[in-house]
Amino acid sequence: MSGKTQTGQETYLLGVATTNPGDKYWQRDLPSLFGLQNKKNASIFINSNIESRYLSLPAADDSGRIPEETSLELWHKHRKQSIHAGGTVITEVLKELNLKPTDIDYLVCVTSTGFLCPGLTAYFVKEFGFKSNIHRIDLVGMGCHGGLNGMQPIVNYCRQFNKGHGLLVCVEICSSAYVIDTTISNAVVNSLFGDGCAAAVFGPNLSAIACKPQILGFESHIATEEISAMRFDFDGSKNSFYLDRNIPYVIGNQVDQPVNALLKRFDLKIRDVSHWIIHSGGKKVLDSIKYALNISAHDIRHTVSVLRDFGNLSSGSFLFSYQRLIQENLVREGDYALLMTMGPGMSIECCLLQF
Amino acid sequence: MSDFLELQTLHLIEKEETNWIEFNKVFSEEQSLRDLQKLMDYLEDYSSAKLIVFRNLDYLNQFLNSTDEFRNWEKVFDRLNRLRAVTIAVIRGVCMGLSFQLAISCDFRVASSSSSLQSIEVKNGYLPGMIIFRLAKFIGIGIAKRILFMGLPYKVEDAFQIGLIDMIFSEIEEQSTIDKFIKSLLPVQPIAIQLTRRLLDESFANSYDETIGHFIAAQYKCLNPPPKQNN
């Protein structure tokens, strides 16, 4: 895709809805609930810059610990919570925009925390009565950057067809992908991720409502020499996520490449971007990106606050940050915003918006 | 002399690794701002200079009148503070108003023995700009209050004693003093300069626990050059 050469219908991000399934847990309480006696493992939770997370966990047993769930229980949890939470955000975003399910022409569901066949799109078509000829994609297994990958086909479709609307649903029940043990690797993962679900609608801004950003373009960057740095390992019964300790810095070291490539297509520089909406991947990766792009703590305030309040919500996290930007009510017409997600591959996805 | 940028209120000469920027005319504050914005664009996008020296600051002894003006000028000073090059302000005579702000936004200040620094804004009932934020970091709140509340000229010898001025030159030794100062800074490593400056600036605001994460991220960037792109 090339930025300014694209033609067709102007496509806007019209609205976003979010929800957090499960119960709210304070980060300080989780090490003992997970039975982590080791001080080093517990300190990983405390030093994560996360204060609270929503998780779908069984009640603690008599010993005060969350009982270990079987792989079947985790699978059922993902299915139940995904359909419920996904339904909640779809209802909310359609209501906010006064759209009917039959107004949606393209549906993309993104998840990496569970596998369903048929996929989530089929369940939502059945539940909401979307058109039987709706275009749909179930995007499974791309990880935290998948939300922007899911956005691209929707935007391409909307650009091609007048009045078309697309719906993106990112559903991540991260507590369905937990392996609770005493390893440092799992302590890092278990200290980071939270359950979250977000939906976004794209299409023409028919009523010319102010402050709906136009989607200008996308840019991808994949560094396959880091393909093993973020991955699910199947341990025989469960998927256990692995995060290489240096991957946050590797991302920081390469992040300027897609950012500058995207901005260059629109004759822009980093200094022209007024709003940065970055995936809340964790403290280390945010530090790394902040110094790599020479942007300020203020520039990533929404990303940091989403991390603090909810943890890493995987694919839908950037939509939570975007929602906070809109709620802040500071964006001005003409402002540029850059959306960025990072994840396995190693991959960095970027999208440029203009209000 | 290898490159040249000529604007209405200033010109830039690129000599080896140093950009020499000389203010040369008094125009309206708006024109000075426009020129400095253009200069910042040039320094960020095209210049490979590792050192930037600002001279004839007295042409910028101008004062602002509106919050919009302060906001726009502060953007320029902030950009100056984010450059990868080391910045040096050469001060002669009285340094006040915008020239004081620019001098404090630079990494270093070299001043003539007869020069002084002065801020009269608070005496006139308004704030002198984000110098209120930067000055306290250099010299502490106590002396910053003295300079800003009293509005009196602060002599260069006193400024040198407290670290606000880094080197003093006599009238006939200006160039040799600056050259000597520049030599002491070489070699300049741009990424390390930019990150060190930022971490130092943030050291007053951030906790140790926060800063150690920033330091590791910055150090990784210094020690690991990014791979080349395939496309």
What structural class do helix, strand and pairing data of chain A support?
Answer: alpha/beta
Mean pLDDT of chain B: 94
Q: Which radius of gyration of chain B do the C-alpha atoms yield?
A: 18 Å
Question: How can the largest sheet of chain A be summarized?
Answer: 5 strands, mixed
- Unreliable parts of chain A: 1-6
Largest interface: A-B, 21 and 19 residues
Largest sheet of chain B: 7 strands, mixed
Strand content of chain A: 15-25%
What is the structural class of chain B?
alpha/beta
End-to-end distance of chain A: 21 Å
How many strand elements of chain B?
10
User: How many separate domains of chain A?
Assistant: 2
Rg over alpha carbons of chain A: 20 Å
What would you say about this model in short?
Chain A is of the alpha/beta class and 355 residues long.
What does this protein structure show overall?
The complex is a heterodimer of chains A (355) and B (231). Chain A is built from eleven helices and 13 strands. Chain A has helices at residues 30-33, 39-46, 71-96, 120-128, 146-160, 184-190, 247-254, 256-265, 283-293, 301-310, 317-328, and strands at 12-19, 23-26, 52-55, 106-111, 135-140, 166-172, 196-203, 214-222, 230-234, 239-243, 273-278, 336-343, 347-354. In chain A, a hairpin with a 3-residue loop joins strand 12 (336-343) and strand 13. In chain A, helix 2 runs parallel beside helix 6 (184-190) and helix 3 (71-96) crosses helix 4 (120-128). With 355 residues, chain A is of the alpha/beta class. In chain A, strands 1-7-6-4-5 form a five-stranded mixed sheet, with helices on both faces. Chain A has a four-stranded mixed sheet with strand order 8-13-12-11, sandwiched between helices. Chain A has a two-stranded antiparallel sheet with strand order 2-3. In chain B, 34% of the residues are buried. Chain B is α/β, with parallel strands linked by helices and 231 residues long. Chain B starts with a strand and ends in an 8-residue tail after the last helix. In chain B, helix 1 links the parallel strand 3 and strand 4. Chain B has helices at residues 29-45, 67-81, 98-105, 131-150, 156-161, 174-185, 190-202, 208-223; strands at 3-6, 10-15, 18-23, 51-55, 86-91, 94-95, 108-112, 116-117, 154-155, 167-169. The interface between A and B is medium-sized, with 21 and 19 residues.
